[in-house]
From TrEMBL:
It comes from the Bacteria. SUPFAM superfamilies: YgaC/TfoX-N like. InterPro entries: TfoX_N. Residues 13-73 form the TfoX N-terminal domain. This is TfoX/Sxy family protein. The lineage of its organism: Bacteria, Bacillati, Bacillota, Clostridia, Lachnospirales. It holds the Pfam family TfoX_N.
Length: 106
């Protein structure tokens, strides 16, 4: 099942306090970027984030879910209706996220 654009717009609105939130559509789902780093994505109308140490600590009742068959587990964000929670989560995770890989020219 693909994610809806309505759910994407809802999540983007919840993250509107943050600068540089972008997304990329990929196979019916959406990858979410924060200041150029992949923080997670929207899969089957669920917001999932990378399981960094800070994200695990920030979300006291961490639930792991698989975004799609064959993928690594990610953390399900259930508090999507709480703007302050989401903003704090993204701030907490940012420093732990890897820098994007540079694209090598052939």
């Amino acid at each position: 099942m693909a994610s809806s654009k309505n759910y994407l717009q809802f999540i983007l609105e919840q993250l509107s306090e943050l600068d540089e939130i972008t997304y990329r559509a990929m196979m019916g789902e959406f990858i979410i970027y924060y200041r150029g780093k992949i923080i997670g994505g929207i899969y089957d109308d669920r917001l999932l984030v990378k399981p960094t140490k800070s994200a695990i600590a920030y979300m006291t009742d961490s639930v792991y879910e698989v975004p799609y068959e064959g993928a690594k587990e990610m953390l399900l964000v259930e508090e999507v209706d709480q703007k302050e929670f989401l903003t704090g989560l993204f701030h907490a995770m940012y420093d732990e996220l890897p820098l994007p890989k540079s694209k090598k020219k052939k």
